[in-house]
Design goal:
Order of helices and strands: HHEEHHHEHHHHHHHHHEHHHHEH
Largest sheet: 3 strands, antiparallel
Number of strands: 5
Radius of gyration: 21 Å
Distance between the termini: 49 Å
Shape: globular
Structural class: mainly alpha
Helix content: 40-55%
């Protein structure tokens, strides 16, 4: 089964890289996204390729763009409080959304002026606005006094939960290997899934060692800072959202009119197979692009992190290396399934949510567009632990991604108040509703003609 999963990942990756574009939307329905994303023309869709293509589209002459100005943060990269990654990765691109969303207070705005180089002459290639009297800036102002009363950085509770999950995962994996018990391996994989999702809480913040728990999965925190934090979070359900289009042409959540019946309804079945090998697809993609010389630098010390459980299991279980390797691959396979089942059905893919191609609102305030692209799960949001390990409080997490998940519930009163003030509907449903909605969205081939809220 392990060999079959790895072979399937290689075969699927080859098919995805050779398949024609499943795209009959050659222009975003969001009016400000006026350039068709270059990354969608690439045979392999990967985080770093998305970033390089965005730099081409943004055309900032190697500088950083914020709103209508070009800035040079070269001397600030290694002084940046959030860590150097956020600036070194984005050099040569428009970081307006990231700048607005990752800085809740006015401090960064005051510092920005000293790095100004020149004004921009072309409009931004982005649909979103950040008006001072708009939804998102209003919500941020209301949230600031609440957040000022909370301890900065990750909460003690989140750190404890993640550390305990790590200990439980390593213990269960070792016991499963010592007894060669694949049922225990399933439990270890389930715990690994929880651990990886909880680590996602940490890579949204400044550099810290717990964000590397995410790398135990074959996914990498650096890759996901791009594909998730800088792409999906900032351009949710638009053509610039890498997570929306990564599995095309096999999974098509965008309401393309040219979807075949096989893709529309066959995906209801084969998507579950994709869930099992999602982690393996990540490592296959990385190895392929490394061989092709398209990753810079090609290898990093963090690439060794996924192998730590393998050596712990081998060192402390007394099992043979081949049995250890099989059990380790089995655990990763199970973790991949639960992570994907959770992630792809968590919030975004439902016919009631906006997807590029649908008619957008006239008001493209970034915060409003985030609310339009999310539907939360009521059962998950009732537990802080489940919020941490299942992408809960999803709408608030999108609006305030750098705030620890354990603290997000404090923001609901001002969030509801701001939604009421602007006439915005916050959507929620059950876990089953989101699961069913995700399959309905896969089958959907007609865009919504009415804007959200109409």
């Amino acid at each position: 089964m392990v060999v079959a999963a790895a072979a399937a990942a290689v075969l699927l990756f080859k098919c995805l890289s050779m398949a024609p574009q499943a795209d009959d939307i050659l222009q975003s329905s969001l009016p400000g996204l006026w350039k068709y994303p270059t990354y969608k023309k690439q045979p392999v869709k990967y985080a770093e390729i998305w970033m390089e293509c965005k730099k081409i589209d943004d055309n900032t002459d190697g500088l950083w763009r914020v709103h209508d100005g070009f800035y040079d943060f070269t001397e600030w990269v290694y002084k940046h409080p959030g860590g150097s990654d956020w600036l070194s990765i984005t050099k040569g691109s428009d970081i307006t959304e990231a700048f607005e969303v990752h800085h809740v207070t006015k401090t960064a705005e005051y510092l920005l002026k000293q790095f100004f180089v020149r004004p921009a002459t072309e409009p931004r290639n982005s649909p979103y606005t950040f008006m001072d009297d708009g939804f998102y800036h209003t919500l941020k102002r209301k949230a600031q006094p609440i957040l000022a009363q909370l301890p900065p950085g990750p909460s003690a509770q989140s750190k404890l939960c993640s550390d305990l999950l790590l200990a439980a995962f390593l213990l269960l994996s070792t016991v499963a290997n010592a007894t060669y018990n694949f049922k225990l391996g399933v439990l270890a994989g389930f715990i690994l899934n929880f651990l990886v999702v909880s680590a996602h809480n940490f890579f949204h913040m400044k550099d810290n060692f717990r964000m590397y728990y995410f790398d135990l999965s074959f996914l990498t925190s650096r890759e996901w800072r791009i594909s998730h934090a800088l792409s999906h979070h900032l351009y949710t359900n638009s053509l610039l959202d890498l997570e929306l289009t990564f599995f095309e042409p096999l999974l098509q959540w965008v309401p393309y009119r040219t979807k075949s019946l096989c893709v529309r309804y066959g995906s209801w079945l084969y998507s579950f197979a994709l869930y099992f090998i999602f982690f393996y697809i990540s490592i296959v993609s990385r190895l392929y692009l490394t061989v092709q010389g398209k990753l810079k630098p090609s290898l990093r010390k963090e690439d060794l992190i996924p192998f730590i459980p393998l050596f712990v299991m081998y060192a402390y279980s007394g099992a043979t290396f081949i049995n250890t390797f099989i059990m380790w691959c089995w655990i990763v396979l199970i973790a991949s399934f639960f992570f994907s089942l959770n992630g792809f059905n968590a919030a975004h893919h439902h016919p009631e949510n906006f997807h590029d191609g649908d008619a957008p609102r006239a008001d493209c305030d970034w915060g409003i567009c985030q609310v339009d692209a999310v539907k939360d799960r009521t059962e998950v949001n009732n537990s802080k632990f489940l919020v941490l390990v299942t992408f809960g409080d999803h709408c608030l997490h999108h609006l305030f991604p750098t705030i620890d998940h354990w603290h997000l519930h404090h923001l609901y009163p001002v969030f509801y108040e701001t939604c009421k003030e602007f006439g915005i509907t916050y959507k929620s449903g059950t876990v089953l509703d989101l699961l069913k909605g995700q399959f309905l969205q896969l089958a959907k081939n007609e865009p919504n003609r009415n804007p959200p809220g109409k």
